[in-house]
Amino acid sequence: MRAGWVPFHASLCEGDKRGLPRAVRFVYLEFVQKARAYSGRLPLPAGFRSDLDAVHDVVGGNRREVEQALSLLTASAPDDEPMVRLEGDPGRRVLVVVAFATWCRADNSAERVRRFRERQRQAPRAVAGTRNALPAVTETSGNAGEKSREEKRREEAPVVPTGDGTTTSPGRSRSRGRAAKTLCPEGFQPRPEDAKPLVDAKLDVDAVLADFRDYWRGNGELRADWNAVFRQNVRSVLGKDTLRAKFARPAKLAPPRPVAAVGAPAPNAVPAPPGVLAALQAMIRGEDLTSVTDDKDRPTTVAGGTT
Q1: How far is residue 282's CA from residue 276's CA, in Å, rounded to a whole number?
Q2: What are phi and psi of 154, to 5 degrees?
Q3: What is the pLDDT of residues 264-297, one digit of tens each?
Q4: 10-103, which class in CATH?
Q5: Which of 30, 215, 266, 290 has its CA 20 to 30 A from that of 199?
Q6: pLDDT at 28 > cutoff 80
């Protein structure tokens, strides 16, 4: 609690104090605040003719309100002591806040820190005492503790891939029915029934599988059932036209026709009409086409007429 303020307790408005004027309650809070530094015993300055003058010099404010507060607060109730009391020899008078610890507990940040640190020091001792008492438990409890540690050790055991897309873990109880998660095996091969939809769709299974392995091994994520992941990947490929086009099996091209050697007749070639071959050869040699005839010396039709 800061030294600049004090709490206003609800009891200041209850019981016999219910009839106190509001100004009197405020003056009382001023007494408490001023007396905090002296643990509830506020020394009054000397040299004043009366206690009222000394108190008014300390708290200030309206003198009539201070006088009324002193009159009411120093009066004893039938079943209660006064709220403040003036005592001491002349020149050394003291205003005592009765039950100061109740109205304003002497507490500051340094004291709270000290108590907190003390609790922190006591906490390890309490834990150590609890640990020392553990061996006194029954044998059944001890076995249960050993079993818990054994289960924890098994759960932390390494995961061993089997190579067929599934995994096994020596540290995990098979009775739980829960498979351990692993990376995609480097040589993962899907089951034939899982790859059959790709074959039926005339897609390149090897290309889909290579893309699948590269993606998941590069991603580094863990999965419990890689066969199930592959089936999901197959459904994704079949459901998207872009992926179907990407993994479509290339079409088979017809074998090329054989090429005939130079000077040899082409296969399935149609023979030229009589006289055409002789005319073409004459044109290549640059001869006069009017003198070219076929083998039977029949006239040949050329570009100038008939000869």
Answers
A1: 10
A2: -65, -40
A3: 666 666 676 767 777 777 777 777 666 555 455 5
A4: mainly alpha
A5: 215
A6: yes
